[in-house]
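Changelog excerpt

This revision adds worked examples to the README so contributors can see how folded entries look when concatenated. The first example is reproduced verbatim below.
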Amino acid sequence: MPDSRFTLHAFVVTLGIFFVLRASAATPDELRGVARPVVHFDACAKPAWPKAALRDESVGTMELGFLVREDGTLERGVILHGSGDTRLDQAALSSISKCKFSPGAVKGKPVRMWMPIIYVWSLEGEAERDDKLTDATITAASAGDSSAQYNVALLYSSDPDTLGSQAQYLQWLRKAAAGGNAMAQYQLAQHYEAGLGIAADPVQATALYRASAEQGNVLAIERLAVPVAP
C-alpha cells in the first residue's frame, strides 16, 4: 500500500499549459471544433507507487498521450514528457491504459485522436522537500537544461499564485522550446496558433509544430494533418 505521505494528482489537458492563460481566448481545439477524448478514472485503479520509487521518495510531473479510436477503445499510449523517474512513468502509463475512454470528436463526429494528460506524483506534507526539488529544477533550468526549463514552465502554469506570472511562464516555455524540448515546442505553437498570451502567428506556430513533430511528438504530428489557419 502507498505510504500516506504520498498523494497522486492527475488532470486532463486540452491545450497543455493552460492555467495562466486559458481564460483569455479560445484554444486551438475549440477554434476547430475539436473535443478531445475523455478518460474515466473512476473505472480503473489508481496507479500504485512502485515500491522502489516509494522508498526513494521519487516525485515528478509527467505528460502522457493516449490514442483513442472512434469507438472509445484505446489503441496505444506513449510518454510525451517524463517525470525524471522511469518507474513512475511506466506505472502511470500502464495503469491509465487500463481505464475506459470516451472518443474524441470533430464538430460532433467521433474521430480517432490523441488525448494528452498531465500526471503529477507529489509528496503530501513534505513542503520543505518540495521546495528543494523546485529549487533544483530552477537551478538546472538556469543552466540550460531544456527539460528542466519546461518543468519550470509547468510549475509556473500549475500554481501561478505562488510561483509566478504569465511573463515568467512564457519566458521558460520559450527557453525550453528554443532548447529543443518537443513538448515545449508543441505548447508554444498552440499559443501562437490561438493568440493565447502572445500575438497570433500561424507561420511561427507551424514552424514549432514541425520542429516538435520532427522529434516524434505525436500531438504535433496529428496537428499538422490539418494546416494551421492563416
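The second example, added in the same revision:
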Amino acid sequence: YNLSGVRTDAYAYDAAGNASLIAHFDAAQNITAWESLYAGTSAVHELIVNAIAGRTYTSFDYVYDTQGALVSRTFYTGAQVFSAAYTAYSGVARNERFYDALGASTAYDYDTANHKTGLSVYNAAGAVTDVYHYDTAGNYTDIAHFDAAGHLTSAETFYAGGAQPKYVIANGLNGIDNYSGGKPYNSLELDYTAAGATQDVTLHYNDGTSFIQGIANGAVLTSVTGAADRIWGHGINNTYAFHAAFGADTVIGFNLTGAGHDVLQFDASMFAGGNANADFVLTLASQSGSDTLIQIDASNSILVQGVSLAALAANKAADFSFV
C-alpha cells in the first residue's frame, strides 16, 4: 500500500512459498498489470497490461509456455474484443488475426517454418467471406468466396506456381443456356489445362441436371454425382469418368475408334466380385435405337448416343477403363 493506504501491488503464494499471482494497481484500483506463474516456478504463464497510452491498443495479454516461449498474444482496443491475436509454435507464428474498427477481421495461418499457408477474411458478424491458401513459396493453391449466408459463391484452384487456374466455379448465377432450349442455370464450372487452355465447361441447371462440354482434346469429363448429365466430348481422346451414384447420363460425340478414340472410365469399386471389366459391363448394355444403353443399376445408366452395342463390344479393349 502507498502512504495514503491505497493498494498498489498484490502477490499470492502457493503452500511452498512460490509466487503464483502478481497484480499491480493504479490510484483508482484498476489493474494496470497482472501476471500468473507456473506452479512452483518463476516462469510467467500469462501477462496482462492495461491502461496503455500512446498506442493503437489499450491493453495486451501475453501467454507463455513453461520454457518461456510466447504461445499467444492479444491486443485489445477500447470496446473492440481485440485488434490482433497471435499464437505460436515455440515462438514461431502459427496464426494471427487483425480487426478493423467495425469488427471485420483478417486471419493469417503459418506452418512451423513460418510460411504463410492461409488467409481468411471475416465480416463484422464473424462470418467468413474469403479464404486463400498458399504453398510454401507463397503462391496461391486455392481461393474461395462466400456470401453472407455462408454459401460458396466462387472458387478457384491453381496449378503449381499459383499463376494458372486449374479449376473455377461460380455459384448463385442467373444464366440461360440458349444451346439447350433456354434452360436456366445457377452454377458454372471451368477446368483449365496447365497451359491455360479451357479444358471443359459444366453448367448446373436449376432443375438439378447438368451439361458438361469438353473443349480441349484429352479432357477428363467427370459426371456430376446424382445428376442427370449430358456429356459432350467435342474433341478427341476424351475420358468420360463415372463414379458411384453418378445418375442417368447421356454421352454425346463418343469417338469409338482410331488414334483419337475416347474412353468410358468407371470406378472399379462400383462392381463387386471381380466384375470390373468390359465384358461384365457389356452384359448390362442393350441396343436403344441407334444408341447403346448401359444400365448399371436402377438409378445409374449411360446412354452412348450414335454408338451401336456391337461396335462398342468390338472396341471394348480400347474404350473401357477401370480405376
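Reviewer comment on example two: The mean pLDDT is 91. The helical segments are 278-283, 309-314, 316-319.
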